[in-house]
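S.,

Sequence below, as promised.
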Amino acid sequence: MHKARAIILALGILLMTAIPFDATAFDATPVDTPYSEVYRPQFHFTPAKNFMNDPNGMVFYKGEYHLFYQYNPFGDVWGHMSWGHAVSTDAVHWKHLPVALFEDGGVMIFSGSAVVDWHNSSGLCVAGKGGDKSCLIAIYTGHSEGRQTQNIAYSNDRGRTWMRYARNPVIDINESDFRDPKVVWHEASKRWIMVTVLAKEKKVRFYGSANLREWQHLSDFGPAGATGGVWECPDLFQLNVDGRTGLKKWVLKVDLNPGAVAGGSGGQYFVGEFDGTKFVNDNSPDQTLWIDYGKDFYASQSWADTPHADQERMWLGWLSNWEYANTVPTSPWRGAQSIPRVVTLKAYTEGVRLMQRPAREVQSLRGEHFRFKNEAASKINSLLQARGVNGDLLEIVAEFDAGTSSEFGLRVRRGDAEETVIGYDRAAKQIFVDRMKSGRIDFDKNFSGRHAGPLATERNRVKLHIFVDRASVEVFANDGRTNITDIIFPKPESRGIEVYAKGGGSGGGGGDAKLVSLDIWKLKSAWTDIR
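The prediction came back faster than expected:
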């Protein structure tokens, strides 16, 4: 423990004591792994080894995206929760940094967020060159012996080292399931807002603060929407609707486990108004709006302080599900994060809805490009084969004219008795991912399955934007109206791609669905720059 030190503030003198983190002593993320292991994702973030789950502390500061994450430095299953850390200039190519906040004295570091304290409202920032008064503040849940409290830490060197606030916890209500603080700046009320959950009560709790150290309870929201499991990992942000500056809505995102649409853990969101004190839902409390209809997109968090944040947010989520997170057949790591996604709002007749699309930065990975136009689905496969289109790292943009076909889509990661099917069921009006023959499915009884979400055709057309990695598929349908994210574990040699269509009515047959356009890019690995 180090000596207390006095920090002289512009508005007075506040005595602060701090305990420094010697993160390098606990760094368990070596950079000598080849990143070529079986099932190692090539453009999704993974730790070099050991267990990772929720993204935390998402903030953009001085040209860097920060990704903190729930991490066990000592094993490949959940435990000893700490905050791992990586930085990137584009949210695609990542550089590992030492563990930022680690379990200490039996207190695990659960999920939370980070903000830029631009004007030193906390009094924890040390003035830098040119009079810069800003620093990073992390807000996290401390978990110990069945008790959860909210705490802060601060960094004056761009997140490279962290100090705990000496007077932690900043909020303690003597509860065992009170966690996951997301802190945002609310401009209208000129104060910080903390969004937390009372997990078992299925409630979101709001707090306000002028200085990030002293917090006042403002209001609660919920239960509403899906309530089948505990609530976790909230997020709160405001966006323009349809890109219009005059129409804004607030999004309150809450995850739950179990009880998600595909089983196990998943995410939902609410659209409404937030006045700096309370959130009011635009929709009926019994309506559930799902973020993703697959099984493997959880605990998503948006980056704070990114450019153009009022028009779109960028976030990512954990690619796994608590039903099998500790048993997926990867080694020496477990857990991956999704590609970065841009989140926007769009108005429909039924209300304002969340849209997701791949961040444009992912295009930096594009390599060889193949393009086809106006080809019958039944004839495209010979063209794909002739041009040698296959692979385990692919970006696919396919626009189908459904014709009278009852079902159509693509089969990816095809090999000996293996395939992952991404299709559209016309009768059910659903987009789906079928991973029942996707490869390794024997490690958990809940893994295999077919996951579907609602999707109406537009002018009898369906557009699919698909990312295929060594151990996942991410599907954005009709410009992100419906999304499905699933992890898969095929053999390395399962690299085939095939278009298919089934006939309408009772006659069966090959179907007459047509590819209006098909673009396929072979993608490069993002790991080559991580060292």
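The chain has one helix and 37 strands.

Coffee later?
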